[in-house]
Amino acid sequence: MTEHEREMVSPDADLDDRAVEGALRPKRLEDFVGQERVREQLSLVLRGAQRRGRAPDHILMSGGPGLGKTTLAMIIAAELGAPLRITSGPAIERSGDLAAVLSTLQEGEVLFLDEIHRMARPAEEMLYVAMEDFRVDVVVGKGPGATAIPIDIAPFTLVGATTRAGLLPAPLRDRFGFTAQMDFYRADELEHILRRSAGLLGVDLEDDAAVEIAGRSRGTPRIANRLLRRVRDYAEVHGDGHLTLGTARAALTLYEVDDQGLDRLDRAVLDALMRRFRGGPVGLSTLAVSVGEEPETVEVVAEPFLVRSGLIARTPRGRVATPEAWAHMGLTPPPDAAFGAGISDAAPVEPPDPS
Ligand SMILES: Nc1ncnc2c1ncn2[C@@H]1O[C@H](COP(=O)(O)OP(=O)(O)O)[C@@H](O)[C@H]1O
Ligand SMILES: [Mg+2]
Prior knowledge:
DNA binds at residues 314, 319. This protein is of the alpha/beta class.
């Protein structure tokens, strides 16, 4: 399988996504579709701060890739009418990298720190102080003669984003006044996003085509927008550019994204699990070998969605196909298939680190 095929339903942004995402991002909170609770809470935080004439509390956004964290960070700055500075955890390798950013912030600026869980440890300490006291301690010299010179910095609002809130040290998590927990989107929300994107792209999208694409988008706006563009490509080549249910189905069949959003790798994993291992339990690496993939690819790319869809269960003895998986693949489980006893008494296993 090529990278390209697998990337069709990956929640991570590829180059093509990055090129169009700017145009598709809602600019204001009222245009941000879904996540009602987060939107309402955030609106209160922002309005309260504006009424008091102060920078709002620091905000943490937690949730999987493609769910709208970067979009929300930009919206926060826009709603506050504040400048936005963007950096990310991996870009902060030393505390000096962070000091350079913090000491040049303007009053009220929004600092977006993406993938905040990947920031270097020594920088974390500096961030605690900056968040709490708007101060940076710059260490001058080395060894016993080293001194910390405190520098005041402008009051700012940190907006942190993470796909792994569990990896954040508690002292860092505690310094955020508000945490927005981003969830997967409902089908009707994805349909709304698709209709909005179609309007921006100048694409004629029929309602039932929007329903079809939404159903295959894994609850993720980024995937919905990507599938929309691929269906549009197909409609331009094979039809008059009009996105009907028929074109959507034909295009998504061609791209091998099935009616639940499963791609070829997902189905290969399910197929091997059922046909070769009678539905499991089977170890992840054995399963990966049987589909000709690296264990990590199966664990990070395919498995999380299969587990979330209720098609695969993780048990201490290995991966097991659920009754829903047998039904989805149109196969009949053998009478001694492992689901049932094998699953119900099993302790849940921690999901892997997708980063
Ligand atoms: N609530 C939403 N409403 C409309 N579009 C959205 C929403 N959330 C995400 N998107 C779209 O999905 C794409 C990915 O969102 P992004 O904010 O980059 O996700 P994240 O930073 O969480 O990975 C963006 O181009 C944006 O257009
Ligand atoms: Mg992002």
